[in-house]
Design goal:
With 125 residues, this protein is of the alpha+beta class. The protein contains two helices and seven strands, in the order E-E-E-E-H-E-E-E-H. Strands 5-6-7 form a three-stranded antiparallel beta sheet, with no helix packed on it. A two-stranded antiparallel ribbon has the order 1-4. A two-stranded antiparallel sheet has the order 2-3. A hairpin with a 6-residue loop joins strand 5 and strand 6. The protein is elongated, with a radius of gyration of 24 Å. It binds zinc ion. Zinc ion binds next to loops.
Length: 125
């Protein structure tokens, strides 16, 4: 039994499920889930409810700690390129294009470039 992790949900142990009920007769308790793999919130929570419980309790404090956004971020023209495709009139062939979502400029794109998730015209964030 190595590398078992506890769900970080602050109320995990208060949800009445059979898998949380542990111990021997007369001293059973509902316990925080412990698993080799947790699939929510970067592997920290057993389910969405526990993830949101954590956020309800700590979210504001966490945002303040890691840096609250106090002004709008801007996505500029240089980073507004999206990959898209158009169908021909028979819906048989696709024509792939880069389309700038601000300027509406279009540039040619190959299918391979479309499928390559690393290929982009965007230069930054
Ligand atoms: Zn949980």
């Amino acid at each position: 039994m190595s590398d078992l992790k506890y769900c970080q949900g602050p109320k995990c142990h208060t949800y009445y499920t059979q898998d949380r009920l542990k111990g021997t007769k007369g001293s059973k308790t509902y316990q925080t889930r412990r698993r080799s793999s947790l699939y929510y919130g970067n592997g920290n929570f057993c389910d969405q409810r526990c993830m949101y419980d954590w956020f309800d309790k700590h979210g504001t404090q966490a945002v303040n700690h890691f840096g609250r956004l106090n002004e709008a971020k801007h996505l500029t023209e240089e980073n507004a390129w999206i990959k898209d495709y158009d169908w021909d009139s028979n819906y048989e062939n696709r024509t792939y294009v880069f389309r700038n979502s601000i300027t509406r400029e279009q540039r040619p794109l190959t299918e391979d470039q479309y499928n390559d998730s690393n290929y982009t015209l965007n230069t930054g964030e």
